[in-house]
């Protein structure tokens, strides 16, 4: 036995994704919650990401997780160019019992190869989606090829739900692997005062990235059909640091002189529960497929019904709980009608819907599933890696 093979891996799991803290998205929140949750359970966890902001440290420990960041030399649309990212991820992966790749990711195929004999677990969130542009089709083709390479090397593939996975361009590959549907970790927040409530009228809300694929232009158009002067539309989320660019300017123009529409900007964690408490209905009007919609599930857990596009993945929380309504993607009139209906739900129905959502989408179930999967995959590793 060689000295290299005799060493124990430095990490129980390495999680690899392009963007990590302090960037916020549904994908990064899944990775962060899994990483920090497993670290709290005593697992040795590393995260490798790109250093998308020069001021972020190249290496730090955050809530028990060792975070490694590779420098970025350029940006292309929603992506970044980081020549050191894949080699860094491969090196840390080889020092781990298992490596978890969060897809889509441009470098996924390369990282899967550079991981050596470390078992790969892929978490497929979504197919890559890009707004129009001359280079968009080529970028999608390149990323898809890389994702396919990673899936082909994966010991297991995690999806948020089979409904979404079956509609993926990568479904033919995923169904040939060991496929595990694991709902993303949704935080059960403590009830809070309705900090954003202004009037007695219906309050409709969205929380997420202010990006083109979220379909927020349809939400603004639908809300403007509400005649009630006391109605409010609250659009919360970062619009200053959105990969690929924000659409907040276009939304403000679309909102025109309607004084009932509010853009709150980024909400700190301690503001989120108060935001949900202010709502009568949550809206998820995305025009591109989403694999689940964590924000809608967290709102539902606090008794706020959701109106979501009837599309694979994002419709699952509503179909599983019956707590809300679906509408044909892009249908403004159907969206407006559904919002008016669910905003009028009585307290008893809200309480029942909240209980059902909490039973289905809490964090512990997700962490248990990932912990068991990583342990099983890591136990199969052949040659042990060297420390980073």
From TrEMBL:
Statement: the UniProt record of this protein carries the keyword Transmembrane helix: no
GO molecular function terms attached to this record: glycosyltransferase activity
Keyword Plastid: no
Listed EC numbers: 2.4.-.-
Record's keyword terms, sorted: Glycosyltransferase, Transferase
One Pfam family, short name: Glycos_transf_1
Sequence ranges assigned to domain Glycosyl transferase family in this UniProt record: 202-351
InterPro entries reported in the protein's UniProt record: Glyco_trans_1 (IPR001296), Glyco_trans_4-like_N (IPR028098), Glycosyltransferase_grp1 (IPR050194)
Record-annotated Glycosyltransferase subfamily 4-like N-terminal domain positions: 26-178
Top-rank EC class of the record's enzyme: transferase
UniProt cross-references to PANTHER family, sorted A to Z: SULFOQUINOVOSYL TRANSFERASE SQD2 (PTHR45947)
Protein name: Glycosyltransferase family 4 protein
Biological source species: Streptomyces pakalii
């Amino acid at each position: 036995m060689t000295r290299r093979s005799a060493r124990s891996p430095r990490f129980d799991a390495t999680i690899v994704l392009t963007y990590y803290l302090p960037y916020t998205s549904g994908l990064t929140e899944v990775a962060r919650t899994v990483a920090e949750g497993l670290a709290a359970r005593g697992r040795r966890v590393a995260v490798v990401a790109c250093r998308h902001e020069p001021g972020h440290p190249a290496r730090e420990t955050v809530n028990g997780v060792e975070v490694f960041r590779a420098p970025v030399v350029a940006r292309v649309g929603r992506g970044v160019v980081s020549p050191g990212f894949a080699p860094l991820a491969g090196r840390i992966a080889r020092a781990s019992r298992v490596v978890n790749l969060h897809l889509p990711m441009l470098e996924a195929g390369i990282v899967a190869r550079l991981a050596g004999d470390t078992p790969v677990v892929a978490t497929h969130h979504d197919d890559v989606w890009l707004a129009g542009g001359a280079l968009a089709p080529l970028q999608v083709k390149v990323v898809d090829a890389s994702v396919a390479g990673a899936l082909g090397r994966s010991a297991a593939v995690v999806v948020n739900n089979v409904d979404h996975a079956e509609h993926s361009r990568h479904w033919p590959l995923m169904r040939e692997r060991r496929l595990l549907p694991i709902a993303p970790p949704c935080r059960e927040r403590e009830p809070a005062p309705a900090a954003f409530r202004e009037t007695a009228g219906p309050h409709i809300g969205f929380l997420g990235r202010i990006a083109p694929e979220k379909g927020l232009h349809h939400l603004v158009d639908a809300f403007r059909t509400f005649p009630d002067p006391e109605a409010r539309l609250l659009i919360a989320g970062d619009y200053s640091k959105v990969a690929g660019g924000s659409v907040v300017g276009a939304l403000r123009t679309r909102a025109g002189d309607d004084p009932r529409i509010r853009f709150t900007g980024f909400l700190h964690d301690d503001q989120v529960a108060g935001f949900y408490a202010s709502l009568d209905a949550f809206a998820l009007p995305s025009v591109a497929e989403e694999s689940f919609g964590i924000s809608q599930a967290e709102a539902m857990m606090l008794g706020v019904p959701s109106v979501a596009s009837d599309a694979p993945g994002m419709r699952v929380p509503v179909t599983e709980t019956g707590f809300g309504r679906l509408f044909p993607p892009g249908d403004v009139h159907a969206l407006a009608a559904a919002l008016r209906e669910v905003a009028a739900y009585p307290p008893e129905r809200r309480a029942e819907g909240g209980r059902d959502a909490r039973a289905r989408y809490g964090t512990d179930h997700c962490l248990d599933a990932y912990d068991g999967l990583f342990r099983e995959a890591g136990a199969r590793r052949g040659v042990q890696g060297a420390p980073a």
